UniProtKB/TrEMBL annotation:
Positions bearing N6-(pyridoxal phosphate)lysine: K246
SUPFAM superfamilies (UniProt xref): PLP-dependent transferases (SSF53383)
Presence of the UniProt keyword Transferase in the record: yes
Enzyme Commission code: 2.3.1.29
UniProt name for this protein: 2-amino-3-ketobutyrate coenzyme A ligase
Named cofactor requirement(s): pyridoxal 5'-phosphate
Entry function: Catalyzes the cleavage of 2-amino-3-ketobutyrate to glycine and acetyl-CoA.
Length: 405
């Protein structure tokens, strides 16, 4: 450190930001002037069909959610000004934890301010240097960070590769406890973890299984309980983390669900729980209303999957390359980063909001726009979006039209 050290610090940040801009990696935030929904209004006054929210069940901007949040606020107030264990637990928090446990088929549930906190506070209280965590190579940043905070040995298996997972289980044979950690659904590709196989391998080696259900809770599986329902392994997954900020209402908040002794331990020792404020009552009450709605009807989940099937087959018929699958995340592959950026910009002009993803968010040469369907989209909106994709694709020379009459 010298007398210029502080000045150099800020100069260094400026240089790095310039480097990001030059490399095309600088992220600008889109500013909305409306509620979240199938259509949104941007701050420039344009109305756009929104194909890039995690608003899978279409609840984020719904009047019913606003009412439920207001009702809970009127009853329980604006906030707690406390962590849970001092004076920050209300009946609504206990009701929501019970409802989440029932919905997910688990013993007990603990709430966090975010799923990032749920994952960040999960591993360190439960595992130490005697143990091992085996993690899918494409796991979410919050799982990676949570594992980093824990002293357990870290092993990685190739994405969704069961032979490699088994090799890692064998490599961890000398450890006391071993846990396999994976996203239930991987958000960049819409890939579903091979959870039936993972549970079989876990049983074979005596390992635990943890899944992060942020892109699954509320709509995967016949009644929307998640990837464990989708793969018929309810009761065989040991720990489930998830968010209230995507399908289950869209505000914010996270949770971990597991056996009672795991949740009790987290309540005693998990740092983001012990040292961070209670979930706002508005969110707890509205999330509870969502779970009641999902328990009484699969209509939203069914509508989402119908929209997904419709969009997937129509976009492929137009000649676009998509990653195959059944999830409402539909990667429309453009491969080249500048093309993905131009394509997303043209769609914006044509009234469709999507984001281009390119390296380092996805592998080099795998640039894409990621479409996310919602139960809130009408068929007319999807048709309008598809027409815009077709126009932008033709203009940019992305569609092979030679066979078209
Ligand atoms: C979105 C997401 C998170 C973070 O959820 P928050 O509640 O917004 O913190 C964690 N894991 C995965 C897989 C996600 O997609």
């Amino acid at each position: 450190m010298d007398i210029n050290s502080k000045q150099n610090f800020f100069v260094g940040l400026d240089r790095e930001l310039e480097r990001l801009k030059t490399a095309g990696l600088y992220k600008n935030e889109r500013v909305l002037a409306s509620r979240q929904g199938a259509e949104v209004v941007c701050d420039d006054g344009r109305t756009l069909i929104n194909l890039c929210a995690n608003n899978y069940l279409g609840l984020s901007g719904e009047e019913s959610m606003v009412r439920a949040a207001i009702d809970a606020t009127e009853r329980y107030g604006y906030g707690l000004s406390s962590v849970r264990f001092i004076c920050g637990t209300q009946t609504v928090h206990k009701q929501l934890e019970k409802a989440l446990s029932d919905f997910l088929g688990m013993d007990d549930t603990i709430l966090y301010a975010a799923a990032f906190d749920a994952n960040g506070g999960l591993f360190e209280p439960l595992f130490d240097e005697n143990d091992a965590i085996i993690s899918d190579a494409l796991n979410h940043a919050s799982i990676i960070d949570g594992i980093r905070l824990c002293k357990a040995a870290r092993l990685r298996y190739q994405h969704n590769d069961m032979a490699d997972l088994e090799a890692q289980l064998q490599a961890a044979a000398g450890k006391r406890h071993v846990i396999i950690a994976t996203d239930g659904v991987f958000s960049m590709d819409g890939t579903i973890a091979r959870l039936d196989k993972i549970c079989d391998l876990a049983d074979k080696y005596g390992a635990l299984v943890m899944i992060d259900e942020c892109h699954a809770s509320g709509f995967m599986g016949a009644t929307g309980r998640g990837t464990h329902e989708h793969h018929h392994v309810m009761g065989r997954v040991d720990i489930i983390t998830g968010t209230l900020g995507k399908a289950l209402g869209g505000a914010m908040g996270g949770f971990t669900a597991a056996r009672k002794e795991v949740i009790d331990t987290l309540r005693q020792k998990s740092r983001p729980y012990l040292f961070s404020n209670s979930l706002a009552p508005a969110i707890a009450g509205a999330s509870l209303a969502v779970l009641e709605q999902l328990a009484s009807s699969t209509a939203l989940r069914d509508r989402l999957h119908a929209n997904t099937a419709y969009f997937r087959s129509a976009i492929a018929a137009l000649g676009f390359t998509i990653k195959p699958g059944t999830h409402p995340v539909v990667p429309v592959m453009l491969f080249d980063a500048p093309v993905a950026q131009r394509f997303a910009a043209r769609l914006y002009e044509l009234g469709v909001l999507v984001t281009g993803f390119f390296y380092p968010v996805v592998p080099m040469g795998q640039a894409r726009v990621r479409v996310q369907l919602s139960a809130a989209h009408t068929t007319a909106q999807l048709d309008q979006a598809l027409a815009a994709f077709a126009q932008a694709g033709r203009e940019l020379g992305l569609l092979d039209t030679t066979g078209v009459a």
